[in-house]
Backbone:
């Protein structure tokens, strides 16, 4: 286990290094000269040379990379040209909590819908309940989140007027309104995820129900429901947790779309606006933060998986 | 293959007619009703989008302000948008863009990724280590964010979207190919070829590639839907194909503001996109089950 932890840690460090090189290289290739942009109207040859050397852009590429990494680690990510606010604050303080909040409710929604549906479909397999449930799951799995969001806005926001369609209210400001604003976005983002989890739950439960130990339990006279809840479901959770975790990163993809549709000021909306405004250092910081989150989530899932599955732990 | 043949019950004629691997795959695929339905749906959309210049009732870019915001009618089956452009014609051309981007980006990704995977798996050592670390790096981004990062550098436009998506998918092909090459590299026929002095490129292309092809085709099928979804998503965000092109994602974005008075402007392109994606997913899943039975999710 210790050996594994050390290896996994080293692997993560290597990945973080690769990502940083990649993001740095990408932004080096970006068109335009950041110094000219930053100076704007204050441009003259002296101020240009001064800022260039201040930013370390007259040094070698390797030194520039090291400077950039050092600044990144310290949280010194520069300021936004457009809003004038520090990039670190825009990303970590303003945008990230919105995305985490949205993802949290989407996950809750997806699990509450998907696991019971998957269980019911597996227990009634090859009946119309199964077909309808799994058909719906594949459908939601294929529904582009930005389109689903618009359809939901149209039906529940505009036509029925049940839920607000735009904007974000911090839970600190008004819990009730904040939750109300999350209903449609969480449904939009969670639907894709729910489809996936329902399918995995169903197929895992079908597998487990065919295992000898279930037959033994049935033969011993354990009642139908008790077999499912006491013996089968626990083993179904292992693949489900794995997929939930592995796809948590995929949720970020949906988050970018969902935030744009519902005008939520999260990290996905931020990176989109940054690209459109050509604020490369903001793109750089946002992409780095998303990639780091993705890697850390995968690391956590891996560790959790080993913890849940003793066979892998001892191997 | 012999064991796989035994698993297929409804092929009693096998004794008389020689069951080639290709035929076996087709039988497995055809037995899957969902996959067949998906293939039909995708096939219809591909044909219709190829024929778009001949069957589209209007020019997809032609504006007619007197006809703006018209609902579905005999003249405009799917209505018109805010510029009076015919929605049906735009959707036909939009499906064309989706398929071009899908096939081109996944195709380029496949060529690059397979070459990387073959070289890494065959030569091993430092080459392998370097190539696979690059792949690790690429795959540790979530695809949409990686594509957005590439777009940030390359700029907007159809070509750049294709390149960005190709870069996003190449890593997956490389990883799949390398894994299978490692598995068969020490087979006797490969070693025999090496001992006979066959050049490295020939070993890779003539002996290794044909034997690792199935998972690559499966990957191609599964990634098509993802590519089309990402492309329309990028265009929806304003980071893909720029207006006035008839792109499905862009059309959905353009109709957002008119959702109350003209829901068909977003509605129909979205519906077309959903049908294409569902079709491709069913097709891809069927392809996976037929070609690569081991790789089924659980």
Residues:
């Amino acid at each position: 286990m210790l050996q594994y932890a050390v290896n996994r840690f080293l692997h993560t460090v290597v990945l973080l290094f690769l990502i940083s090189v990649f993001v740095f290289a990408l932004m080096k290739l970006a068109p335009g000269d950041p110094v000219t942009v930053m100076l704007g109207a204050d441009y003259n040859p002296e101020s240009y040379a001064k800022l260039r050397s201040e930013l370390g852009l007259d040094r070698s590429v390797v030194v520039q990379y090291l400077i950039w990494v050092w600044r990144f680690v310290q949280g010194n990510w520069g300021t936004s040209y457009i809003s004038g606010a520090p990039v670190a604050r825009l990303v970590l303080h303003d945008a990230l909590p919105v995305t985490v909040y949205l993802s949290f409710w989407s996950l809750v929604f997806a699990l509450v819908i998907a696991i019971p549906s998957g269980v019911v479909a597996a227990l009634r397999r090859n009946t119309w309940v199964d077909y309808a449930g799994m058909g719906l799951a594949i459908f939601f799995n294929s529904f582009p989140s930005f389109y689903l969001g618009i359809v939901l806005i149209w039906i529940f926001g505009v036509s029925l007027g049940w839920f607000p369609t735009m904007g974000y209210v911090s839970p600190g400001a008004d819990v009730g309104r904040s939750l109300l604003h999350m209903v449609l976005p969480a449904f939009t983002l969670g639907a894709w995820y729910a489809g996936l989890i329902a399918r995995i739950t169903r197929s895992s439960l079908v597998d487990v129900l065919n295992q000898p130990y279930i037959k033994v339990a049935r033969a011993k006279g354990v009642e139908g429901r008790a077999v499912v809840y006491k013996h089968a479901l626990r083993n179904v959770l292992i693949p489900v947790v794995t997929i939930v975790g592995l796809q948590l990163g995929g949720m970020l993809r949906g988050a970018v779309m969902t935030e744009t549709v519902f005008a939520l000021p999260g990290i996905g909306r931020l990176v989109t606006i940054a690209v459109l405004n050509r604020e490369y250092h903001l793109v750089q910081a946002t992409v780095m933060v998303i990639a780091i989150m993705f890697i850390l989530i995968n690391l956590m899932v891996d560790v959790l998986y080993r913890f849940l599955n003793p066979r892998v732990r001892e191997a | 293959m012999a064991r796989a043949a035994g698993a297929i019950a409804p092929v009693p004629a096998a004794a008389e007619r020689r069951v080639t691997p290709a035929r076996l795959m087709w039988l497995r695929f055809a037995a899957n009703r969902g996959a067949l339905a998906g293939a039909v749906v995708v096939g219809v959309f591909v044909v219709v989008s190829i024929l778009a210049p001949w069957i589209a009732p209007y020019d997809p870019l032609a504006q007619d302000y007197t006809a703006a915001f018209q609902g579905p009618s005999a003249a405009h089956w799917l209505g018109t948008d805010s510029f009076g452009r015919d929605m049906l014609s735009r959707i036909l051309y939009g499906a064309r863009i989706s398929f071009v981007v899908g096939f081109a980006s996944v195709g380029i990704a496949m060529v690059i990724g397979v070459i990387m995977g073959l070289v890494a798996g065959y030569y091993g050592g430092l080459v392998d280590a370097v190539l696979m670390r690059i792949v690790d790096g690429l795959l540790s981004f979530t695809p949409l964010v990686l594509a957005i990062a590439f777009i940030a550098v390359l700029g907007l436009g159809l070509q750049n979207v294709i390149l960005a998506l190709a870069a996003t998918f190449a890593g997956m092909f490389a990883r799949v190919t390398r894994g299978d090459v490692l598995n068969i590299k020490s087979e006797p026929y490969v070693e025999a070829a090496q001992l006979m002095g066959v050049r490295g490129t020939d070993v890779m292309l003539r002996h290794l590639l044909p034997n690792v092809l199935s998972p690559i085709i499966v990957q191609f099928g599964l990634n098509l839907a993802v590519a089309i979804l990402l492309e329309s998503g990028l265009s929806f965000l304003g980071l893909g194909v720029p207006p006035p092109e008839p792109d499905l994602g862009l059309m959905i974005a353009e109709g957002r503001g008119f959702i109350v008075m003209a829901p068909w402007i977003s509605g129909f392109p979205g519906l077309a996109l959903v049908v294409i994606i569902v079709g491709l997913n069913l097709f891809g899943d069927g392809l996976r089950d037929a070609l690569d039975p081991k790789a089924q999710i659980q």
